[in-house]
Fold:
Amino acid sequence: MCGIVGYIGDRPAVPILMEGLEMLEYRGYDSAGLAIWENNKLLCIKQRGKIARLKELIAHTEYSATSGIAHTRWATHGEPSELNAHPQMDGSKKIALVHNGIIENYYTLKKYLEKKGHRFETETDTEIIAHLIEEAYDGDFLEAVRVALLELEGTYGLGILFEGEPGKVYAARHGSPLLIGKGEGEYFLASDAAAIIRHTNQVIYLKEKEIACLSRDGYDITTLDRKTVVPMVEKLSWDLHKIEKGGHDHFMLKEIYEQPITLQNAFRGRLDEPAGSSRLNGLKPYFSLLRESNRIIITACGTSFHASLIGEYLIEELADIPVEVEYASEFRYRNPVINPGNIVFVISQSGETADTLAALREAQRKGAVGLGICNVVGSSIARETDAGVYIHAGPEIGVASTKAFTSQVMTLNLIALMLGRMKGMGVDRGTQILKEIQMIPVKVANILENEKNNLIIKNIADQYYQWNNFLYLGRSYNYPVALEGALKLKEISYIHAEGYPAAEMKHGPIALIDENMPVIFLATDDPIYEKIISNIKEVKTRGGNVIAVATEGNNFIRELVDHVIYIPPTEPFLVPLLSVIPLQLLAYHIAVNRGCDIDQPRNLAKSVTVE
Ligand code: G6P
Structure:
């Protein structure tokens, strides 16, 4: 989720590294740094904040270095600070390293290294890698890197400098993209082609578990098990704007397509398979309070509010704890009944939403324990909550939230599972849920792949984009999804859309149904599927057009509705993670057809820091 740039050649490295970082900055990183070879010494310069601040810091110095590595950070372990920024170094300060990804077993490795006498200066998982290489070094640096990487569980894209080998830049990849740019007598390293496209369009994509050693004369690529790799040099043909967006036309689409990875990141390192539970160490100080609590309140705004509603159903079903959900803006201004020891979860992608922050403060003032579910590490809400869980969705640029929503819902699943296992749920059921959770990223990838190949949702959008009203209906876990689908459409296409619990239709919205009102039904397999079918019939008999999201294998529904979008089967409480994807895509394609500004819709802001 962070950005890496590296260079080795004859030109001054610092301007190239800084320019590369700037090309990646659009994602909104929180700190930056670089390591270079300056006068035969390894020099590390880091700064909290935007790249402009790092630029100011180095503006008045002439650097002669012709090789180096640089990084823009999106914090995952440890708040954004100069200390936690990359490069990170080992104890002897001879190894400087930049890292993208998350090391799942960093805590175990840290304990192991501490026993060996290593002392750590930061809260990052990255510092562990530098120390692990230092520990493994026995005269052969490449071998030390290999030995260290074999110990890591999780994901990494790495750029490494070692004081003993001034003319080299090392790189390694596992689960986090990294490419080498090939110039004339110079080589580049980047996590994203945008960072180096100005200099070369000849690239080599490092593959999983490959290590590269770059020098002015060329590169050697080997695998972790010491096999030599003959790499393929490819030519980049994208334009710069597309590269920034990972080949997509908009950030929103990029973020929709990132969801198989971001969902995996939400549960990475958090599944406790032997216990059939989840491991959320951030909440550890409050485990007993959570176990004994007889009331949980969740408060949030916008899309995060919809995730909260799913959280209510989840926690009540899996953990049997009563949950109330309230808009943060309402919560903060009425006099909510809170007793000391009550738990209030606040959910916020940005961690800066003014109403959510104020609701948190109000809850804490009244004696509640405030727990956070945030994306942005070190944000105001993350800092002010008593404890919390990060969703690790990475920077979300599109104003309409997509990947943060699914990561919030995944995190709520982990919380509900953990609470369930602390209470009545047996290990077998927990294990079964863990297995289903692990299959979700692949199922989301299937939905996205299917759409890429068959354009079913795009074709529906082409047919309906001129309609002016839409109704979204769902029941149970799909009711909040209906709300979220309607919100997505409103936000980016400016079409009036309403989400409703399907059964409530007959208490009002049914009066609106005619041939001009498309109705989107979430009709996936669950215990109340038959009831949804009755609601669909009520709409059809009144001339409404029905688009249904249904479970694969349900051929019957084809007879009943105008269009069907299929999603894979899963447990009913995991369905929102799948059923929301077609609704995100539908809103996207309708908005594209209407010529709307997808990533920055009118009147909306990504982070609402005012009331
Ligand atoms: C704004 C954004 C929404 C977001 C809401 C809450 O309205 O446009 O996408 O859901 O704020 O934001 P938060 O960062 O607290 O989740």
Q: What stands out?
A: The chain has 19 helices and 26 strands. Residues 290 and 488 are 33 Å apart (CA to CA).
